[in-house]
Amino acid sequence: MSEARRTLFARLRQLYARPPEEEQRARETIAAHLADREPNLLPARARVAGAEAVALFERMARRVQTDVERVAARSEVVRTVARYLRYHGVPQRLRLAPHPLLEEAGFAEQSLMTVARGAADPSDPVGVTVAEAGIAETGTLMLCSSPQCPTLLAFLPETSIVLLPTAQVVGSYEEAWQLLRARYGQPPRSVNFITGPSRTGDIAQKITLGAHGPRRLLVILVEERDAA
Amino acid sequence: MEVASLHFRDRARRALADARLQQALAVVRAGWQDTRARAIRELPEFDELRDIAREIRDHVLAHLDLYLELFEARAREAGAVVHYARDAEEARRIVLELLEARNARRVTKSKSMVCEEIGLAEAIESAGMTRVETDLGEYIIQLANEPPSHLIGPAVHVTQERIAELFAHHHGTSPGDSPEDLVAEARRVLRQRYLEADAGITGANFLVAESGSIITVTNEGNAELTQGLPRLHIVVASIEKLVPRMEDAFTLLRLLARSATGQEFSAYTTVVTGPKREGDLDGPEAMHLVLVDNGRSNLLAGRLRPILRCIRCGACMNHCPVYLAVGGHAYGWVYVGPMGAVLTPHFVGIERAYPLPEASTFCGRCEEVCPVRIPLPELMRYWREEAWRRQLASALARRALALWAFVARRPRLYRMLADLATRTLARLAGRRRRFRRLPFAGGWTAARDLPAPEGGTFLTHHRRARRR
């Protein structure tokens, strides 16, 4: 261990100067706190579930300039994407996360789209990926890095499209994190909470979209029950 | 960064006369105060969350050794390398060694106050490497070669026209000067810098003990590109940033954006745990964490401990009548506004910063809006006492205060003098019943008239009323 580490810890221990029994108690206190998975306080707004949560998610997401589309089945995803890109005059050139949900969406059969898979390339105009959860209280997406979901797909391209199965919309950040714990134990390398497209207020305090990350963000809510 | 806090008065005077700065500060006043108020109206639990937030921060500050130990172990398990730095010099050396070991030439950096505090930017450049700030505000002040003037809006003092000039000068292009044009131009230029960077440096808004994760919060998405594109990610974070669990981080995050910009949540909150994993398609190959003390363990030991609760939201400055009048640069160092008036004397020494805790009317707005309820006026008072004890105030001020103390401790003398002064002033005021100019009070009467006292002191009235 480094000299700096030794000095710092010695300094902290000297400062707290806990006698042995108190040290024991302090360790028990923090162990109990860490084992407790209860949220501290959930705002009333976040205590929603099911269709109500999806509706709140949509409303809050729109408030921060996220575009939201609902589709009843994964087979409608491709059409929705094509229409959105056409509307915004964005080239139909997509980079997809190698995720099962996207594999099954039928992008491969599209002759008018150029489709690539894998990590984002700086020249990609459009990135399509899948969210692990949606959080209703602020219209926030939770994306988890994995071999199936490269992180930068949601950051490098100017247009970011994220699929979100409605079954995975929860009320609060805490519930989303519980889903993550249940699924992965320790968190994946990168967990991105995304609330609207990239923005800055650094020029004349005027909110401008597309600072470094996406200029536009489309969330496609997939209402299929077994979409996950 | 050179410490110029002793020149607060001169700098404040210049700031007051600077029309462009005043225009920018008016926007802060109108913008961030209102948006925060609106966000809080929409979250009825805000005050209750503040109480919990204060408890979380105090709990961590009472067990920093234990949480630090746990954080370090978990971060290691996730594959990150943990370093400790006792002071600014050691922190700079560790970062430079990491960069040099990988032959890094080009470094991108997202906004980090502790990096400003330890003077990392200058160190990187002195070592012959290129540094590019990726937060748009930081990038602008890097081009302007100025220090930040606000915690979350470092370039809040730079007008749109000046930004257009800076871009034209440094990029050799003229992109147009609407905010949209300028943002697009910055995006184009910085995109290239991200891609060619050998290393990315970020700070951390929080360190999560249970998982060894770091949390970054941005609106631009620059922290993610800074840490996600190069091979090496270095995190510089101060030790008090710890929170026990993600649940605790979420409580603080609910307060952070609302207190800062009045957003309900910032656009990007990212939790990073270690470097790229087996099978991952992107992410840095190595992640190093540099945990900086730089005097924080001293703060922990004394009366200033509550300042370590600070989550760097900037609400105290957005609501400070002094900050809003003079801006950040008047404070003369990295940390500005009320939190800066408490932190700067600690980092640079009270003898080099004693005007800062004086630069307050003690109106208490800062404490009122602080999401973790830091008693900022009380902490500034601590420094005033310290400055007094060390006889740092001018001889005149000290003599005047000593005289005041002498009189204030003798009620009968005080009453007699107050009575005399009231009557004398009333008589001297003449028919206008106000003073345009007063000897020894030129500072006060320069901008307004002093109304003459009328009808005797409060105690005279009180006594008369009782007799009736």
Question: Would you mind describing this structure in some detail?
Answer:
The complex is a heterodimer of chains A (228) and B (468). By secondary structure, chain A is an alpha/beta fold. Chain A has helices at 3-16, 20-35, 50-63, 77-87, 100-103, 173-184, and strands spanning 67-71, 93-96, 114-117, 126-130, 133-135, 140-144, 159-165, 169-170, 190-194, 199-200, 208-209, 216-222. Chain A folds into 2 domains: 3-35; 44-222, 3-Layer(aba) Sandwich (Rossmann fold), CATH 3.40.50. In chain A, strands 1-12-7-4-2-3 form a 6-stranded parallel beta sheet, with helices on both faces. A 4-stranded mixed beta sheet of chain A has the order 8-5-6-9. A two-stranded antiparallel sheet of chain A has the order 10-11. The longest helix of chain A is centred in the first third of the chain and has 16 residues, at 20-35. The mean pLDDT of chain A is 95. Chain B has 3 domains: 1-42 and 314-393, no CATH class; 45-297, NagB/RpiA/CoA transferase-like (Rossmann fold); 397-467, no CATH class. Chain B contains 23 helices and 12 strands. Chain B has a 6-stranded parallel beta sheet with strand order 1-10-7-4-2-3, sandwiched between helices. In chain B, strands 8-5-6-9 form a 4-stranded mixed beta sheet. The N and C termini of chain B lie far apart (66 Å). The relative contact order of chain B is 0.13. The chains are: A alpha/beta (228), B alpha/beta (468). Chains A and B meet through helix 1, helix 2, helix 6, strand 9 and strand 10 of A and helix 2, helix 3, helix 4, strand 1 and helix 8 of B. Strand 9 (190-194) of chain A pairs antiparallel with strand 9 (268-272) of chain B.
